[in-house]
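Consider the following assembly input.
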Amino acid sequence: MPELPEVEVVRAGLAPAIVGARIAGVEVHDERALTRHAPGGAHFARELEGRRVRAAVRRGKFLWFPLAEADTAIVAHLGMSGQMLLRSPGAPAERHERIRLAIEHPDHGELAVVFADQRTFGSLAIDDLVPTSDGAPGGFGDPLPVVASQAAHIGRDPLDPAFDDRAFRAALARRRSAIKRVLLDQNLVSGIGNIYADESLWAARIHPETIAADLSTRAVNRLLAEVRLVLQKALAEGGTSFDAQYVNVNGQAGYFAHSLNAYGRTGEACQRCGGPVARVAFTNRSSHFCPRCQRKRRPG
DNA sequence: GGAATAACCTGGATGC
DNA sequence: TGCATCCAGGTTATTC
């Protein structure tokens, strides 16, 4: 499931090939991949053909590719199973291929950027760039203070230099929801999904059902530090892959699944205390944690 | 405005 | 073997 590390691996892999490239052709195989682009496939293709890509940018799980000499960008969200793959021109269609961009790069020649998506929760769109509310760069990969409008509502991610730790602590102090739910709220802090929420809470020894406002300042600081460590480590290992759902632009899996301590380890011994890792229902998904060393604490 | 929940979707795993 | 059901989960609309 692509979360911040997986999306960043995709961005970093695409950037050398797509930045500076001219879009020579667009093939839309499945309009469901354009649910965020209301005018439809023909409009999407017409607007992109002949344009040049200026940058490859990410905030949280959103990617966008600003177009040169324009205030617009191609915005991409991978959803649960989206992939962006670099292929040779004329390469056979990928399974679940939805959209293909033919590009021409001044150094790398002709390439194909393939958007494939099994569960069709992901999408591409052409979107307006709008000024950031804080004047800082819109995301990683572009120094300009603009952000794709579809990503403007989400918070900055914990690895963003402009992330405001103090505002995050203040927001948590107002929330009476479980900390796990708050970590998944992209409006507050972006880039964290179910896997890295479980891993960060395990590392910080915080029970996922702890009310956010009940966490001490010290606990919130510890959690933020662990969130950053977990994301950076996952990024260094190429992200988390359980199956073919997440791969980099070359179709290769990441290695962080081998480093998980809580997520997907139901019944196994906790790497810290030896107790069994538990799995409990959490809204319409699951939480994994160690009941022995992630105890619910009294407020304060 | 905050909080909670359902719906969207496909394919692998599981049970009968 | 074949069919039905469950499960995975990011985002958003809806409801309270």
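Chain A has a mean pLDDT of 91. Ask yourself how this observation constrains the way the partners meet.
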